[in-house]
Amino acid sequence: MATKSLNIEFPSPTSNPIRHNWTQEEAEALFNQPFNDLLYRAQKLHRQFFNPNELQISTLLSIKTGSCPEDCAYCPQSAHYNTGLEKEKLISVERVLEAANAAKEAGATRFCMGAAWRRPTDKDLDQVCKMVKAVQNIGLETCVTLGMLKENQAKVLKESGLDYYNHNIDTSENYYSEIISTRTFNDRIDTISHVRKAGINVCAGGIVGMGESKEDRAGMLKTLANMPSHPESVPINMLVRAPGTPLANVNNVDPFEFIRTIAVSRIMMPGSIVRLSAGRNEMNDSTQALCFLAGANSIFYGDSLLTTENPQMLQDQALFDRLGLRPMVPKVANEKD
Ligand code: SAM
Ligand code: DTB
Ligand code: SF4
After folding, report:
1. Is 118 a catalytic residue?
2. Can you give the three-state secondary structure of 247-291, one letter per residue?
3. Active-site entry in 75, 183, 196, 266
């Protein structure tokens, strides 16, 4: 196998594949394997941990849109850039419930609510807790992404019954300062630690296609995989190039590099759900199919992400039919009705 020529010792098939001591060199060596070797290895592990024909289905809703004080160079919601976005204050619990019911009807099992905040105030959080309870009550898993959290805020969210908190590291520690100046990489790690400590499932991943190198992609996955516990959910986003942001005209990434990132995520965090997250609208069906072969087993389903477009549901249904993919039933159902 090509791994031999790279002079890197990979664990034998009998050793525990859940590791938290990945080196940068090992992560890079995974990326540098021949494509077919990499996909074969990822798919073999995928089958040890998951049914390869099942997808976890999440739907996203923006509950507070735009005017964000952070300067994330990829983000159409940052107040630092003129992106022509229609801004909106925190929406009502009723509107959230309406969207959650529609998502459930369409087949989603998890409902993710995103707010363009640096961090929520305690008053904001009260409102979000009401949303979490309402969504949980109709039998959907809940996820929120609200920016940085203090330790006690993570506890409050846990008490509301929240299942997942999404907080991405976005890129490698080395490349991070090229992308965001208003919060540090360590701020992000701290928030993720508070979420973990509160007993909420962690959803943490990043973005590919921001001008980063292969080494940066390896570094990002090394940070995620070497956390004391792997994030239960790992969203891998392809940058959606939003007009007006500093990254609006960044070069396209070779789709095979994106697929490699999915495969290396699957190998380094074999028991985690890996989400083929933002960017599907710009991907063809074959690229998406290869992402699923590489170990992606979750998607955002619904016509929009937070502020940008996602594939139409009918188009997704047709793709899943062609590939024989079916929805994954959540392990712990919140079903109350
Ligand atoms: N404001 C909160 C925060 O940043 O923590 C939560 C919402 S923010 C939109 C959640 C994540 O979405 C970001 O960390 C980033 O990884 C991803 N994201 C935002 N804009 C994106 C884009 N244009 N393309 C791909 N991913 C994006
Ligand atoms: C994540 O990793 N991707 C989602 C979610 N977490 C909240 C967000 C994608 C946003 C894409 C740009 C937009 O629609 O605004
Ligand atoms: Fe704000 Fe989140 Fe967008 Fe950064 S990614 S600008 S924190 S909404």
Report:
1. no
2. CCCCCCCCHHHHHHHHHHHHHHCCCCEEEECCCHHHCCHHHHHHH
3. 75
CA–CA distance, 168 with 278 (Å, rounded to integer): 13
| Cα separation, 79 vs 116, whole angstroms | 10
Whether residue 161 has pLDDT greater than 90? yes
Assigned token pair, 170: 């976005």
Give me the sign of the Cα torsion angle 281, 204, 323, 268: positive
143 is a catalytic site residue: yes
- Per-residue model confidence as pLDDT tens digits over 278-327: 999 999 999 999 999 999 999 999 999 999 999 999 999 999 999 999 99
Tokens 């996909």 -> residue: 39
- 129 is known as an active-site residue: no
258-291, pLDDT tens digit by residue?
A: 999 999 999 999 999 999 999 999 999 999 999 9
- Write out pLDDT tens, residues 177-204: 999 999 999 999 999 999 999 999 999 9
Ligand 1 neighbours (beta carbon < 6 A): 68, 74-75, 114, 116-117, 145, 147, 167-168, 170, 207, 237, 239-240, 242, 278, 306
Q: Are 66 and 86 in contact (CB under 8 A)?
A: yes
The answer to whether 277 touches 235, Cβ cutoff 8 Å, is yes
Backbone angles phi, psi at 220, to 5 degrees: -60, -45
